[in-house]
Amino acid sequence: MSVLGIDQITYGADDLPACRQFFQDWGLSLVSEAADELVFECLNGCKVVVAAWDKPGLPPAMEEGPTLREVVWGVESDADLDRYAAAIAQDPAFTDTTVDGARRIGCTDPNGLAVRLQVSRKRAVEVDCGAMNTWNAKPRVNQPAPIYERATPIEVGHVVFFVSDVKGTSAFYAQRFGFVSSDGYPNRGAFMRCAPEGGHHDLFLLQIPSGKRGLNHVAFTVRDIHEVFGGGLHFSRCGWDTQLGPGRHPVSSAYFWYFKNPAGGLIEYYADEDQLTADWQPREFEPGPTVFAEWAVDGGLDGHTRRQKNAEGPKGAFLTEKK
Predict the structure, then answer these.
(1) Residues 180-198: pLDDT tens digits?
(2) Domain count of the fold of the chain
(3) In this structure, are residues 220 and 265 in contact, taking their beta carbons and an 8 Å threshold?
(4) Is the pTM of this model over 0.90?
(5) CA 175 from centre of chain
(6) C-alpha pair distances (Å), 311 with each of 5, 136, 226, 293, 314
(7) Is residue 307 in a domain?
(8) Selection from 232, 301, 79, 268 nearest residue 155 by Cα
């Protein structure tokens, strides 16, 4: 029994028209729309809901302003759902309801976030990905690597929160839902994955000196490094602001590109994270700029010139062309 991953996230936001354009530019499909709620889907059916911040029934916010209000995690079966329900039945704000014809249970985590579980509604998808030729292995033969005009995210891969008590919050996810440690910052950060075997992290909890609680970012999985670049360039051409990237994380090995998000926090394209098993031994890192990013472009790349923001674009057909 283990959690499979994120099935749905729900934001509470104050500018739904801006969010509508933002998530469509991001590459999600708008599947339903009402005056107080937008529902988007990733390629595998993972849902992103953007609700008006004051919509009735929306879980309370853990911070002021637009932010994530709920994370729904998927499980494999009704029997799994029963076992998790027994594990959290005594927790504050325990819920056991029916949503869109399916059972959904949940509670509130120590950080004030609504946590829910349901039998996963995500669907299996087959996508073509760019193979990487290395010195030892060259799987891409007589075939150029892909170039993407924009991204089409496969799913919500992980969520990251500022927490006031990283030890207590990470223990909550480990004890209630079976999450396991991947890596960490001593007394400061916890990278956790849903199951012993899987991607480097589905959840990252970060405690900063101020004790601030809230959303840091939501990360969307794309096919490969080329889609990180193609998606980011398209999003830049649409006029949305980069926070940092593109770049590469040393801790998870993933390539990233972060943008500012009108629904709250930041949003990330990422690909090529480490895959772990139960044999993995968690490591500890002292937080710092070089731990966060092996390399990164400050301010992003311009979608038109393909150069760093505010850098002069090419003038001739060839870089070596002389005036």
Answers:
(1) 999 999 999 999 999 999 9
(2) 1
(3) no
(4) yes
(5) 23
(6) 40, 36, 22, 22, 10
(7) no
(8) 268
